[in-house]
Amino acid sequence: MEFKSTEAFIKEDFLLQNKTAERLYFDYAASMPIIDYHNHLPPDVIAANQPFKGINEIWLDGDHYKWRAMRTLGIPEKFITGKETSNKEKFDQWAYTVPFTAGNPLFHWTHLELQRYFGINTLLQPSTSTAIFEETNRQLLDLTPKVLLNDMKVEMLCTTDDPIDDLSAHQKIAASDKRGPEVLPGFRPDNIFGIEGEQYLDYLKTLGSLAETKIEDLDSLLAALNSRIDYFHQNGCRISDHGLEFTHASDFTHAQANAILKKRLSGSLPSTEEASLFNSCVLYELFVMYNDHGWTQQLHLGALRGNNQKLKRQLGADVGCDSIGDFDQAKNLSKLLGMLNDKDKLTNTILYNLNPAMNEVFATMPGNFNNEKVEIQWGTAWWFLDQKDGMELQMRTLSNMGLLSKFIGMLTDSRSFLSFPRHEYFRRLLCNMIGDDIESGLLPNDTAFFGNMVEDICYHNLKKFIKYKN
After folding, report:
1. Helix axis angle, 421-439 relative to 447-455, nearest 10°?
2. N or C, fewer C-beta in 10 Å, the chain?
3. Pairing outcome for strands 154-158 and 182-184
4. Which domains are assigned to the chain?
């Protein structure tokens, strides 16, 4: 591929295939601020707000989407995660990879990001690698995290934080000038469900120390978790998140869960069935705590993580070796939500599905529990599905089986400060879908009505849903 300019395909009407779609996007969607309610951005980098060291730091380091593509192409690992390889060598290998990603969302994202952040309309490929590497690095000398976020009209974002995080970076951001977006913590207690892991007792010791509670049984564990939730709440947190293969919903009693925890504290590992029972109890109790604090809770379901055990041992988790899992979801999810609903302890909930075969399950589950006090949402297409076909399919299925008009829209779920054009990508697809239905005669030709609906999906619905100002 030797085309030089992206202007041939990322034009003003990119992804907008009719005039109604263009009106909906440019008159309504494009100007909406961004609330990025789930991402993995490092809060300490935002707090420091220093110019970046270079394009690799902000674009390639830690981006397992790109790593996965490079490995698929057969790029040697030293050019992906190698410690001794230069930034220029790694960038050149990414530039070599990019033309091969045509048809993958990485191709669109790469060139949208180069355009929107750096004004670069050149296709990234080996012949342009050096020029783009030098120009992006030159511009980054004057760009700070807050500048990049402001340029994308980011109003608020929620990071992903372990219960044992001290939140000092969030405190620094809150105490600093207000030129950047509001940055709030997100409570992600996945490590509490690792009772079978070797480091579990060390984790409980740290958790107990921070909560000023000696964890010696189930009651003290739950007290420690509630203490940390209080602490997060005091620091602006209004949302939790769980990354699970499937919802833990085994039958349990507190006495059984307590016995299992004491067994682990004594140094013995629980059986698989015991771990499931314990996790079910703790998940339920956490959801009760979220309700008591008025939080929104999220469930990211269906990822089969760490498949390449060799690479996991070498590099750790989240390095591009995860895939879609084929777990059963409906019964356990219904059971947990039903238990909470019976006790009036169900809070606003966002459900994310990674397996497209389960789309209809996730589209129909919220309607079972929505009422005047509680709203359950099927969240945007996630991870492997946040590409053109995946997002369109998710919105079509939601529209067919729920209410698209109440949808809370897009998030980045990203570790990169350059990922916010994904909101633009989503908004263009949303406007094109509605515009196509209008021009096909499936919806009335009322641009103002559907324009307001687009604004709600992009911004207003979410702002009301999370209630992060309380």
Report:
1. 150
2. C
3. parallel
4. 6-52+144-466 (3.20.20.140), 53-143 (1.10.2020.10)
